[in-house]
Design goal:
Oligomer: single chain
Number of strands: 25
Distance between the termini: 48 Å
Shape: elongated
Strand content: 15-25%
Structural class: alpha/beta
Helix content: 25-40%
Radius of gyration: 29 Å
Number of helices: 20
């Protein structure tokens, strides 16, 4: 279930002439029985709302005063979300004849044509207040307080995300509400300006429109409604058209050789997901997402994470989790992921989150021998991004679930071989080969806004295996292999002067930093050191490495 909460306006949406018809009440009751949460968001003051509607118990939370006050129907508690109005504001409006005039816990309300007068008084008092309209009503509120801010506070209390919320309204003050929700709905009697920006317009007006919306939510979770404004940009085709994908239900795979640009492709996409408010859980076997902006990490090189810790971290919708598996033995990592996935699915059933699960090193975590249990059946596991060097070694069950694959680096047609025969394609700089529905075409990816220095731990303390730096010496007598930067520095301290200077003169150090470590800045600084020569170069190379990488003690 994608949409777990419905937020509805009151006047002109749920109600007509201040009254809610029995059929609409029954519709809200049906929606709640489906397991969804309901929220009422209105510009009315609480006592005024209670005087016309006695079924606030239909809602988990009620937002009144256009986002300024939160009300808990079950306990009858009120939470004021903004500063109260200065007494001079209402006093001056009253002195100048504004009528009617209402003063709530925060809101000060009147009607047209007193909006100009209201703005003048706000200016005279030097207040950072705003004027919001609602079909003739004029509401004065502190800056930043609106239906969106109130709904956000209510959802946070319920542990729900705006990305799993449908909002429905009819008037000017509902613009913020509808634009913030994942799906914004206008009832048939709504203002044209609201209809133009809505993702869906109901056939029915007011309560009938809400009933229609409820029926569609229960019937198919609004699967038939395409919310184009949330589509995520992947890249641009050679003909200049953009490729965008829906932010829900997709299963992506990014594959390519080591150092081919998988990181750039993956982190750019993850960055856009997080920026758009979609909660991410990144399963990080090698600790390579350490320091990724916006990510809260659980687990270290010394301490393994637990499933319960991951779930606790994800309980807050705004938190993105990085699950570091460095301390989990290599052979145990697939088992850890197999125990994590069902719990994440349980969490999704209750909260709709995390919206995306990112699996790095998928060939290790979902090996070809992996057979999913019913609860981890991959076709039910939408919102998944897998990253791998060897797609042919990924479980067949997971590969069959993939609906889009991006091949990065040389020979992309070979990388995509597990998905069928793909013709040879020469990629241009910045392009990947994008496969979907049996067809493949070049795609120029949209780069991320922030450069992410992934692989730092791998290069600093991991095992580069066949790409190790080999100290051979001037006569080729040595075979000292440095599988990472830490070992490189240890060996650099111990090799004889002739060996060090031999590789320095051949510029082997900068070449390795550039081609294997993939660190152009480090390679550039090393080149400068190599040109200068001399025995002090050892200390300078060490300093250049240590200021960029955290090496094990």
């Amino acid at each position: 279930m994608r949409y777990l909460s419905l937020a509805t306006d009151y006047d002109g949406t749920l109600a007509e002439q201040g009254r809610v018809r029995p059929q609409t009440v029954e519709a809200i009751e049906r929606l709640r029985k489906s397991g969804r949460r309901t929220l009422l968001v209105t510009g009315r003051e609480l006592e005024d709302l209670k005087s016309v509607f006695d079924r606030l118990d239909l809602f988990d939370l009620v937002v009144v005063e256009n986002g300024a006050v939160l009300y808990r129907p079950q306990t009858r508690e009120e939470i004021v979300l903004a500063e109260p109005p200065p007494p001079e504001l209402a006093a001056r409006l009253r002195e100048r004849g504004a009528t009617p005039l209402g003063v709530g816990r925060v809101i000060v309300a009147t009607r047209e044509p007193y909006e100009v007068m209201a703005l003048e008084i706000v200016h005279e008092l030097g207040l950072e207040w705003q004027v919001i309209f609602n079909k003739g009503a004029v509401m004065l509120l502190p800056g930043g307080v609106n239906k969106q801010s109130g709904l956000q506070a209510a959802l946070a209390e319920l542990g729900l995300s705006m990305r799993n919320t449908v909002a429905v309204g009819d008037a000017e003050n509902d613009h913020a509400l509808l634009s913030a929700a994942e799906c914004g709905v206008a009832v048939a009697n709504a203002l044209d300006s609201l209809k133009d920006r809505a993702d869906l317009v109901t056939r029915g007006a007011r309560g009938a429109g809400v009933e229609e919306l409820v029926d569609r939510l229960i019937e198919d979770d609004l699967r038939s409604v395409v919310v184009a404004r949330h589509a995520l940009l992947l890249g641009t085709r050679r003909d200049g058209t953009e490729l965008r994908i829906a932010p829900a239900g997709r299963r992506l795979l990014i594959a390519g050789p080591s150092g081919s640009g998988k990181t750039t492709a993956a982190t750019g996409f993850i960055e856009r997901l997080m920026s758009a408010g979609y909660q991410c859980c990144i399963v990080d076997p090698e600790g390579e997402y350490e320091g990724f902006e916006g990510l809260v990490e659980i687990g270290t090189a010394e301490r393994a994470p637990t499933v319960e810790e991951v779930l606790e971290l994800l309980a807050k919708p705004s938190v993105h989790a990085g699950v570091n598996l460095l301390a989990v033995p290599l052979a145990e990592r697939p088992r850890f992921v197999a125990s994590l996935l069902p719990r994440l699915q349980e969490m999704r059933a209750k909260t709709g989150r995390p919206h995306w699960i990112v699996i790095d090193e998928a060939h290790h975590l979902f090996p070809a021998s992996w057979q999913p249990a019913p609860l981890t059946l991959p076709r039910e596991l939408g919102g998944v991004l897998m990253i791998t060097v060897h797609p042919e070694n990924v479980s067949k069950a997971m590969l069959e679930a993939v609906d889009m694959a991006l091949a990065v680096g040389d020979a992309p047609e070979h990388t995509l071989a597990p998905f069928g025969k793909v013709g040879k394609t020469d990629l241009r700089e910045g392009e990947v080969l994008a496969w979907s529905s049996g067809k493949a075409a070049p795609l120029k990816l949209v780069p991320g806004k922030a450069q992410h220095r992934r692989h730092r731990r791998k290069y600093a303390a991991g095992d580069l295996e066949h790409e190790a730096f080999v100290f051979r010496g001037p006569e080729g007598r040595l075979q000292l292999r440095a599988q990472n930067l830490s070992i490189f520095l240890q060996m650099a301290e111990g090799v004889d002067d002739d060996t060090w200077l031999h590789h320095l003169g051949q510029r082997d150090y900068s070449r390795w930093f550039r081609s294997v470590i993939k660190d152009e800045d480090l390679a550039g600084e090393a080149e400068g050191i190599e040109r200068l020569g001399g025995m002090e170069s050892r200390a300078r190379i060490r300093e250049a490495i240590e200021k960029r990488y955290t090496l094990p003690g």
